[in-house]
Amino acid sequence: MPTHRQNRGFAMVTALLFIAVLAVLTGLVALFTVNNAKHTRSNVRISQTLAVAQGARNFGAAMLGGPIRDKLGSEIQTEALAGTLGQNGTWVFDKYNTSKTATTPDPTTVISNLQYLASQLQGRLAGSGCYGPYPLSSGEALKVRLTFTGTMPLCDGSGGSTTVKLGYGRFLNGARNSAQTYSLPYAMIVSGQYGSAQRTLTLTGQYNFTVGNGSFARYALFTDSEQVISGGGANYFTGSYLFNGPVHTNGNFAFYGDTYSTSEYGSGQATFLGPVTSVGQNDAGKPGAYYMPSKGGRTRFRTPSKLVPPVYRGTAPTFKDTVDWKAKYIPLPPNGQDQLDAAKDGGLYISGDASSVRLYAGDAAGAELVKANGAWKPAAGSNADVYQYIKVCSTATTCTLYREDANKDLYKLKPNGTWALKRSGFNGVIYVGGNVKSFGGPSRPPGATDASSTPPAVASFAQLDMVTSNDLRITHDLTYQDPVCNGTLRRDSTGAVTAPSCTNDPSAVTNVLGIYASGDAGASAMCKFPGYEVAAYTGGNICFGYQGSTNPLTAPENLRVDATMMAANHVDMENWDSAGKMGTLDILGGVITKYDGVFGVFSPGGGQKHGVLPRFTYDPRFENGMSPPYFPTLTFAQLDPTKIAPIIYSQTEQTAH
Q1: How far is it, in rounded angstroms, from Cα 436 to Cα 545?
Q2: To bridge 328 with a disulfide, which of 81, 207, 298, 595 should be the other Cys (CB 3.0-4.6 Å)?
Q3: Alpha carbon distance 76, 82 (integer Å)
Q4: For residue range 467-504, what is the model confidence (pLDDT) as tens digits?
Q5: pLDDT averaged over every residue in the chain
Q6: In this structure, what are the phi and psi dihedrals at residue 39, rounded to the nearest 5 degrees?
Q7: Cα–Cα distances in angstroms (integers) from residue 200 to residues 51, 65, 140, 352, in the given order
Q8: 220-224, 257-261, 584-588, 631-635: which has the minimum mean pLDDT?
Q9: Percentage of the chain with pLDDT > 90?
Q10: How many whole angstroms separate alpha carbon 282 and alpha carbon 620?
Q11: How far is residue 375 from each of residues 92, 206, 462, measured CA to CA in Å?
Q12: Secondary-structure breakdown of the chain: helix, strand, coil percentages, each rounded to the nearest 5
């Protein structure tokens, strides 16, 4: 029988055994807890990296739809100007295919040319296709590697280049004489990092893009020749001139400038806020520019090597963007659109001269719009219908009134005061088979000194192209109901130039106006220019009217024109050597002309004596596909930035802890 001492020993052993077992269990629980915590943290990192990697995928898609799209557009323009791409009426990537019956380009040729395009585009990408790493928040980062050639670029921390098997570029749809859609294959490796964990997605897809012969409405100013004064005189950009947008000439610019003074009309230096390109093929026949010293004296021709910086004896035009004195020649386009047939088939055709054509936005009763709370609306209220009115007069007293509604139905006013449908699906082309002696929008209110209180000429929905076979004289303001910009290009009291803020979204503001003077062969000019201006007596001109201070064919001071204009000959101030000081000329859109216009006469050291102070603001919607209907086209291929479609057709994942 056990003794009391023996029982106590047994109990102690049992207790020690229990404690040992409990310690083991506690250790196991602790180990399990630690492992579980590690596993949980690992799962969190994996989930977090997936989210970051998906964000990187979205970032890559945004790059394809934005900055990389712009790189592609620049490369296509470069190749088009170099003559390596097909132009008007050909296959863009099969330029030597002259078959009139072929409905598609040759696939083998397209593959070869698209491979070359891919290699050139790859070289334009940042880091040849390396984007990131971009830190997002604590411990998170994303990066993207992109290839159009099949070889992934060597990026920091990427572990070297990777070969990815890609398909071939191909033609998708289109016709030889219209827009054509092609595709480039691509691969993209995107990764998301969170701490030490990383998730990688490998994406492959095709980059669909559309090219065609785009509208020529892409310049604040484009001229084929700048020097238009017979007998050796020069046409100068002075302090009168302000440009906000691309400026190009196939000839040579001439500059004169002096110190800005509020008391001296047209003083200061010419200012260019956008890129400037000059070829020198016309005018001097060599690259460079003409400079007159600010104190007057002999004009000197400066070659590009002497234009660094572009300053000569006080004349110092202001360039806020790039300047290229050896740019490639861009031909004025032949008229690739048949505006006459377009007007007869779906627009408004007027045979013979027009005494006047007036545009205005109005209500159902024909009353002009009124301004309320900063916006132009019908007098009956913002919910009332707005119409685009077109008033055509063959004489001062014989007129016909048309109006277009928001459904693009065109009506004609009958003698009994009712409206008769003239055409459904109005295409916006107004064609006059002769001269338009007076063109514009509504008259200004009494006492108005600028266009700020002038009712709009173009309704918010209207898209119009005013075409004449000869000359057109602008005698009234032309403004949009929905403004593209929040103001106009201006100098302040110190001479500093302020640019307005403008939308570049064609879907946000849709009203647009084109003016085109095509110039029939052999036609004589209606617009009155000094006889010593080149081609002064030949038709195909747009002029800003001046026939004397009280003549109804004289435009008001501080004229504003919201339109892009193109002339086969001149866009010019009428009678510029005798016109008074007419204030500013604000152009929102652009000017494309064979010969640069003359807008006044200046005296070195004494400011401008005659004419207007031109202010050119480029309409940035034109960069994104906006164009007046049937406006003349470029002769070379151009990317349509509104028709880019990156498509993903496969995705694989890889996780690293």
Answers
A1: 12
A2: 81
A3: 10
A4: 999 999 999 999 999 999 999 999 999 999 999 999 98
A5: 88
A6: -65, -40
A7: 11, 22, 14, 69
A8: 631-635
A9: 63
A10: 28
A11: 44, 44, 17
A12: 20, 35, 45
Q: Rounded CA gap, 410 and 427, in Å?
A: 10
CA distance to 156, 238, 240, 513, per residue, from 292 (Å): 52, 10, 15, 37
Helix axes 67-81, 107-124, angle to 10 degrees: 120
Tens-digit pLDDT profile for residues 206-224 = 999 999 876 778 789 999 9
pLDDT for residue 532: 75
The residues spanned by each domain of the chain are 44-213, 339-580
pLDDT value of residue 626: 84
Question: Where residue 38 falls among pLDDT bands split at 50, 70, 90?
Answer: very low
Q: Amino acid letter at 467?
A: V
Residue type, 168: Y
CA 327 to chain centre: 20
Q: Which residues contact 618 (CB under 8 A, 6 or more apart)?
A: 219, 220, 244, 245, 246, 274, 589, 590
Counting every residue, how long is the chain?
Answer: 657
Residue pair 86/36 in contact by the 8 Å Cβ criterion = no
Chain CA centroid to CA 235, Å: 28
- Two structure tokens written together for 291: 């400079």
Structure tokens at 542: 């747009």
* Contact assessment for residue 647 and residue 346, using Cβ atoms and an 8 Å cutoff: no
Q: What is the DSSP letter of 175?
A: -
